[in-house]
Each structure stands twice: as structure tokens, then as C-alpha cells.
Design brief:
Aspartate Aminotransferase, domain 1; 406 residues; alpha/beta; binds pyridoxal-5'-phosphate; Aspartate Aminotransferase, domain 2; 16 helices
Length: 406
């Protein structure tokens, strides 16, 4: 069976995790701090806080920004449930917007139409690894008439004076937009280092801050580190310093710090990340080449004039296929021992969000993009031969299901 997205765990990773285990320090410590600094340098953001998942990082972030009851956060209808769940947990309202027809990402004109005086943030999602339209979104929220609508409800929001631009960068580590890397494209970006993501720490995430000049990013780093550790003003490592046992709790905090065991994996992953991207790009190119010759295939965009993907998910679409036909094709592909997936079921299609009143028919592009979509395996260890097996399995399965029906 060709798996969908196994992690790359080899002797190098095992050696680094073993070194962390033997170092006498296994929770947040020197490896986590180095990992944060290396991410800041790689992404070109101003500061980074490592956390235990995308989800908890974003949850803390929304809390820190003061987003709560009565506020609205705009998100695409086409994303993973985490993007919306965190907004629900902060008691704000996720305002869902439809996506572009060609790239699965948030449609800027539809965002404009969804902005109200309650809009506190826009969370764009880089589906598959292709950055959303951050420049267009930033221009939009800086328009005088949009700024005039904005109502700040605390000091930080007042200082920014406009809607906050967030990036769900769970897929896009290493992606570029006009030469700048993901992590530095929005005011604040959140990465996921979950096991299936491009760069993994088993579970993990990072918040990257690139707020305007008048925000002090050293202060922000300290504030977020306190928030992710019970609100304690000293972390465990600081408390081990001679005579430094005494601490205070300055607010009821969360608990979602990254451990040095996780950071040990992440440091190895980051050091050789370019290899990973190069291999993914080669696989994307092989898929594109193979499917470009098929009239039924709609290949995903992964390189445009100003964007380069992180090659996270190969989102193939089967032209004119219904949802039922797509499901039958997937079944056929699995019969040939190839694992594929669907990214994503749009949020209004999920019980939790149906129950909150969202309706699939309000998001036709999201539905259309989902109904005929199949995500193909992409990872460093996938061989050229296996890529060929995947291509053959997809072609045969499509022919069986679509051609045989005609
Ligand atoms: C994986 C993923 C998340 C959640 O990441 P966790 O680290 O598992 O919390 C959020 N958004 C998107 C788009 C994802 O794919």
C-alpha cells in the first residue's frame, strides 16, 4: 500500500530526539528556543512562539487580541474545521466566505462584501500550500472606507486601527508570495507541525508575528510565552536558576507550550527543509505532466507569476465528475493499494456547522471544488516509481468510473 503522507523519521531525527532525552531537559528549553529563532530567520517574520498545535496557538492568539462575544472573524468556507472551531471557542462568529474558482483560496471581493462593523479579523487559509492573496487583502483592510467601519474594542485593536489579517499557514511553510515567505505575509500567521504536514514535530505549531512597526515584538513574545504557560511569569527553565524559584501568575493562562522533544524533530526537519521542498516540487511536476494530457483532469495551481507553493497537497480535480463518481474513483484507487484523500469537506457540509445554520448552497465554489477533488500522495520518501503507480491508478480508476458510464 502506498501511504498518503507518512512522516520522514530516520536516524538523524532519532539521534536528535535521543540527544534531547539524554540532555536532562525534555520540556520547553534550549531546543524550543533555537527552533523559534530559526523559524523567525527562515520566514522573515519579527518573532515566533512555538506551541503544541496550530489550534491552541490560534486559540491563544484570538484571546490575546481580545476577540470575543459579538465579534466576527471572516474565514473561507473551504478549510479544515480547526480554522472555525477556534473562533467558536472564543465566542465570536465565524463569517464564512466562498473561494476562488481556480485556487481554493479566499475570494477577496466576497471578503469585501462580508465586512461589517463587527469584523475584527480576516483569517485567510493557504490551501494546499499556495498563499492566499495577502497583498489584495491588506490593501482592502487599509481602504479608508473599510477602516472607517472598524470599531476597536481594546488598546491593541485601537493601535492597529483596522481589521487584523491572520494567516492559517498550516499548509504553507516555505511557500512564497512576491519573494516573501509564508509566516511574514499577514499580521500574524499560524503554522501546524502535525504529523501529516510538510514540516512535522509529531504535534506542534508556531505563531509568527509581523505586525506594524509600532508594535514591540519582544514584548509580544514575552506576553504570548506567559499566556501559553498558565500565565506564569517565569518558565520552568528560568526557575531552575539558583534562587530563582519564586514566580507569580499574572493572569489565568493556557497550557500549550512546545517541548524540547518536539523541537528536536523540528530542528532536523527545518535544517533539511529545502530538500523536502525540492522533492515535493518534483512530484508535483510529475503529476502535472502526466495529467495535463488528460481532458478530464484539472491540475491545481502551484506556481503563478508571484506565488510559489510549499507543495503540500496535490489537489487534483476530475472535470464534470459528481461527488458520487469522485467517491467511486477513490474506491477504485484504494483497490489498487494507493491511499488518497479529500481536502476538504467544506465547513457548511459538516454537522457541527449545519447545526449553527450555515448552508452549503451559499458557497457554490466551495462545493464544486470539493465534489470532484482527490488529493494525491506527496512526501519526501515517495519514489519516482511510486509516483508512476499513483498516476496509473488514478488514470485507470477515472477511466473505469467515468468512461464506462458513458
Ligand atoms: C492541520 C490544519 C490545522 C490544524 O492544525 P493542528 O496543528 O492539528 O492544530 C488548521 N488549519 C488547517 C488548514 C489544517 O490543515
Amino acid at each position: 500500500m502506498i501511504p498518503f503522507s507518512p512522516p520522514r523519521i530516520d536516524d538523524k531525527v532519532i539521534a536528535e530526539v535521543t540527544a534531547a532525552l539524554k540532555s536532562g531537559w525534555i520540556t520547553t528549553g534550549p531546543r524550543t528556543k533555537k527552533f523559534e529563532k530559526d523559524i523567525t530567520a527562515y520566514c522573515g517574520c519579527k518573532t515566533t512562539v512555538a506551541v503544541n498545535s496550530w489550534t491552541m496557538g490560534m486559540q491563544v492568539l484570538l484571546h490575546w487580541w481580545g476577540i470575543g462575544e459579538g465579534d466576527e472573524v471572516i474565514i473561507p468556507a473551504y478549510t479544515y474545521c480547526a480554522s472555525a472551531n477556534v473562533i467558536v471557542h472564543s465566542r465570536a462568529t465565524p463569517v464564512m466566505v466562498d473561494i476562488n474558482e481556480n485556487d481554493f483560496n479566499l475570494n477577496v471581493e466576497k471578503v469585501r462584501a462580508a465586512i461589517t462593523p463587527k469584523t475584527k479579523a480576516i483569517m485567510a487559509v493557504d490551501i494546499g500550500g499556495l498563499p492566499a492573496d495577502y497583498i489584495e487583502l491588506m490593501d482592502l483592510i487599509n481602504e479608508e472606507i473599510i477602516k472607517a467601519k472598524f470599531k476597536a474594542s481594546n488598546e491593541k485593536q485601537e493601535k492597529l486601527g483596522r481589521i487584523l489579517l491572520l494567516s492559517d499557514s498550516a499548509h504553507s511553510f516555505g511557500a512564497k508570495f512576491y519573494g516573501k515567505r509564508s509566516g511574514s505575509l499577514a499580521d500574524i500567521s499560524s503554522f501546524s507541525f502535525h504529523a501529516v504536514k510538510n514540516l512535522t514535530t509529531a504535534e506542534g505549531g508556531a505563531l509568527c508575528f509581523t505586525l506594524p512597526e509600532d508594535f514591540n515584538h519582544d514584548d509580544i513574545y514575552a506576553e504570548i510565552c506567559t499566556k501559553i504557560l498558565h500565565g506564569q511569569n517565569k518558565d520552568a527553565l528560568a526557575k531552575t536558576q539558583k534562587g530563582n524559584w519564586k514566580y507569580d501568575v499574572i493572569e489565568p493562562g493556557f497550557k500549550c507550550n512546545m517541548t524540547d522533544l518536539q523541537a528536536a524533530i523540528g530542528l532536523v526537519e527545518l535544517e533539511r527543509y529545502q530538500e523536502n521542498l525540492d522533492r515535493r516540487k518534483a512530484i508535483f511536476s510529475q503529476y502535472k505532466e502526466a495529467f495535463s494530457r488528460e481532458i478530464w483532469a484539472n491540475n491545481p495551481l502551484f506556481e503563478t507569476e508571484n506565488k510559489t507553493s510549499s507543495y503540500h497537497l496535490y489537489l487534483l480535480r476530475i472535470n464534470d465528475s459528481t461527488e458520487e463518481q469522485r467517491d467511486a474513483i477513490i474506491q477504485q484507487i484504494f483497490e489498487q493499494d494507493v491511499s488518497v484523500n479529500v481536502h476538504f469537506q467544506p465547513l457548511p457540509n459538516l454537522t457541527a456547522y449545519k447545526n449553527l445554520g450555515y448552508k452549503m448552497e451559499d458557497y457554490p465554489e466551495a462545493y464544486n471544488s470539493f465534489a470532484n477533488e482527490i488529493s494525491l500522495p506527496v512526501y519526501y520518501d515517495l519514489t519516482d516509481e511510486q509516483v508512476q503507480t499513483v498516476i496509473n491508478a488514478v488514470k485507470e480508476s477515472v477511466n473505469k468510473v467515468i468512461t464506462n458510464e458513458k
